[in-house]
Amino acid sequence: MTEILTSAQMRALEAREIESGRATGRALMERAGRGVVAALLAHWPALGNQPGKAVVLCGPGNNGGDGFVVARLLRNRGWQVAVGMLGTAEALPPDARANHDLWQSMGRVAPLDAVLAECAGADVIIDALFGIGLSRGLSGAARRWADMSAAGLAARVLAVDLPSGLCAERGQPIGVAARAALTVSFHRPKPGHYLGAGPEYCGALEIVDIGIEAPCPEATLLVGRPAAADLAKVGHKFDNGQALVLCGGFGRSGAARLAARAALRIGAGLVSLGVPGSAQMEVAAQITALMMQRIEGAEDLAAALTDRRLSALCLGPGLGVARAAELLPVALADGRGCVLDADALTALAEADLRAPLHSGCVLTPHGGEFARLFPDLAEASGSGGEMSKVEATRQAAARVGAVVLYKGPDTVIAAPDGQAFLHAASYERAAPWLATAGSGDVLAGMIAGLMARGHAPLDAAMMAAWLHAEAARSFGPGLIAEDLPEALPQVLAGLAG
To answer: How many other CB atoms are there within 10 angstroms of residue 114's CB atom?
Structure first.
């Protein structure tokens, strides 16, 4: 899986690379600049046909140093290049200063304010003002640049590392931020490329190899394509597990039926709906391959759990908060794999029932449910906070001792031991059709089905997140939640092929 590095982790890797003698700061900066030029010409091939005009905006740190390298390389290709700088040459770090001086032997460096007027006539603008190094809001000429790019008053914009003003950890503007059509970052992506508004501000994302080989064990990982072998069915139906999805009362069974159908489609050998008497006729009229079992209250659930072939539970979709509060203690005390979604999460928050959670649980909150369960973490990672969604999810998982899948187009999955994974369904292969009623119920069912088949909670959550988005992409526009389970066979066949 691809590592996603915070600013601090990236700086630490660069520092170790330099300290080890494998590279110098100047060499890394040169590779970065070459990578930016290569990405520019690959993304806009027409610009490679003949030299154009570039405006390069250089900041007061090493991101600005990358910009000076880009300016020099474009000039060597015959481009007309205007360079604007924020700050003074004397304040630049040594490697950035060396590249500033190299550029100055070829062309002039104007104050940033003076060069902004040239942006309108440029073929491309290189935003190398701050990158991942920004910790406060933009002001002065940098703020004017952000306003220009946001208003669409600039030509093609390429951001070096990150558009100026965008938080590298949270993917949110620090006040205001520039917008780019292409963002080129180095070695590994950063959280801000995927989280929050990051994809909207970054445009297309290109990651350039600058020769750093050391891994970062603490990194968040990007959720990748599951292995076909992990999803293959074998043997008898009970070899593939049995899931029980608890259902709400009359008029509320649809969400649970969606979850149960998804659990069956993902490969669970047998899936039952635990239905109260008031909803039995309603459910019976709607299901065929699914089983139905009458579960009125806690005693009935306890009796159902004596069947040791039952390998995973799903509570929450359409369950009703009062019914969830009654059934949760029994389900959690049993210790079997358990997916908690929707009304089960609200019941947890209202009754403060978090203590009985165990390592076999997966919580699947959306933003509102996360805020009810973890109000302090939600506030810290909200629009005015300083914590990233990744860190908030990681702390939530550690707090409850269970896997937490924090839903959204930037879904974050964390385990109690600190492992964190990001599934960025909004980036590049977007699945906007998932923003439809019931899609979260399907996801909960998919996780339960995978857990029923024997997958660990963390693995089940990651696989389900990937398959859920891929099913939406496979179906395309017009998707409703009922379509997701029916799209899974094509997705699973694609994995096998």
So the answer is: 12
Of 448, 488, 452, which is closest to residue 467 (Cα–Cα)? 488
Q: Which helix (H) or strand (E) holds 471?
A: helix 457-475
DSSP 115-151: HGGGGGG-SEEEEES-GGG--S---HHHHHHHHHHHT
Q: Are strands 310-315 and 242-246 parallel, antiparallel or unpaired?
A: parallel
Type of residue numbered 80 = Q
| 95-105 tens-digit pLDDT | 999 999 999 99
pLDDT interval class at 350 (50, 70, 90): confident
DSSP-derived letter for residue 433 is G
C-alpha span between 186 and 413 (Å, rounded): 24
At which residue do the structure tokens 């088949």 appear?
Answer: 453
| Beta pairing, strands 410-414 & 403-406 | antiparallel
Six-digit token pair at 452? 């029923």
Calculate the dihedral angle through the C-alpha atoms of 140, 145, 147, 151, rounding to the nearest 10 degrees: 160
**Tokens found for residue 327:** 């059934």
Cα dist from 22 to 16, 35, 96, 192, whole Å: 9, 19, 19, 28
Name residue 475's amino acid. Answer: F
**Residue type present at position 143:** R
The label of the residue with tokens 């990982």 reads 221
What lies within 8 Å, CB to CB, of 16 at 6+ separation is 214
Integer Cα distance of 91 and 71 in angstroms: 20
DSSP letter string over 290-347? SEEEE--SHHHHHHHTT-TTEEEEEE-TT--HHHHHHHHHHHHHH-SEEEE-HHHHHH
Over residues 143-180, the pLDDT tens digits come to 999 999 988 766 799 999 999 999 999 999 999 999 99
Report the candidate in 357, 247, 256 with the shortest Cα–Cα distance to residue 295.
247
pLDDT, one tens digit per residue, over 288-320 is 999 999 999 999 999 999 999 999 999 999 999
Half-sphere exposure of 229 (CA within 13 A, CB side): 0
> What order of strands is seen across the sheet that includes strand 310-315?
3-4, 220-222, 420-424, 410-414, 403-406, 361-363, 337-340, 310-315, 242-246, 270-275, 291-294
Buried b (16+ CB within 10 A) or exposed e, 34-48: ebbbebbbebbeebe
For residue 23, the surrounding DSSP H or E stretch is none
Comparing CA positions, the residue from 436, 439, 405 lying closest to residue 422 is 405
pTM of structure = 0.94
In the block, residue with structure tokens 């649809």? 254
3-state SS, residue 185: strand
